Amino acid sequence: MSYKTTALGSKPASRADSYSSKGPSSSCPYVLKPDITVPGTSILAAWPPNLPVAQFGSQNLSSNFNFASGTSMACPHGAGVAHPDWSPVAIRSAIMTTSDVFDNTKELVKDIATDYKPASPLALGAGHVNPNKALDPGLVYDVGVQDCVNLLCAMNSTQQNISIITR
User: Fold this and answer.
1) Which pLDDT value is given to residue 14?
2) At what angle are helices 145-154 and 159-166 packed, to 10 degrees?
3) Of 41, 83, 161, 167, which one's alpha carbon is 20 to 30 angstroms from that of 15?
């Protein structure tokens, strides 16, 4: 039996994984999807002990923790990058304008789903989240009601739909 250890300095990192939500957005083709990429692969997460994490022969093995991958594992990493006094749009702007498109070997982030070719914006979004840069992003974009109305008009929304959304 061997114990898992923490591997530091893995290269290259990061990558766009195959389960990642890819663009373009079907509901709004004017908006890049995804916004950003955040870590979501092999995340050590809390796990319900009544669900086995593995099976050894006929024996179910339980634990309070398990390694999991997916957008549900990525979400907390992105949600932790926030300014409590900023609007959600300003936070999104800070995260997107400071994200990285290069991995830790100074190469473009690769897309696992395309046999490790450079990830396109439809796989990577604006880039891989960089929390330290997002804390002091410099220029931050925000939107107001009129910006939302302009987008809805560009999407050919009806006056009734615009009124319902903007109140």
Assistant:
1) 81
2) 150
3) 83
Closest CA to 125 of 90, 162, 95, 152: 95
3-state secondary structure of 118: strand
CA distance 45 to 40: 11
- pLDDT the model gives residue 96: 93
Residues 30 and 33: their CA atoms lie apart, in Å, by: 9
- From CA 91, how far away is CA 99, in angstroms rounded? 12
- How many other CB atoms are there within 10 angstroms of residue 82's CB atom? 17
CA distances from 93 to 20, 42, 100, 160 (A): 20, 27, 14, 29
1 pLDDT above the threshold of 60: no
The pLDDT of residue 100: 95
Reduced to 3 states (helix: H, G, I; strand: E, B; else coil), residue 133 is helix
The total of other beta-carbon atoms located within 10 Å of residue 155's CB is 14
Q: How confident is the model at residue 47 (pLDDT cuts 50, 70, 90)?
A: very high
Q: How many CB atoms lie within 10 A of CB 140?
A: 17
CA 41 to chain centre: 11
Please state, as a whole number, how many other Cβ atoms lie within 10 Å of the Cβ of residue 47.
Answer: 16
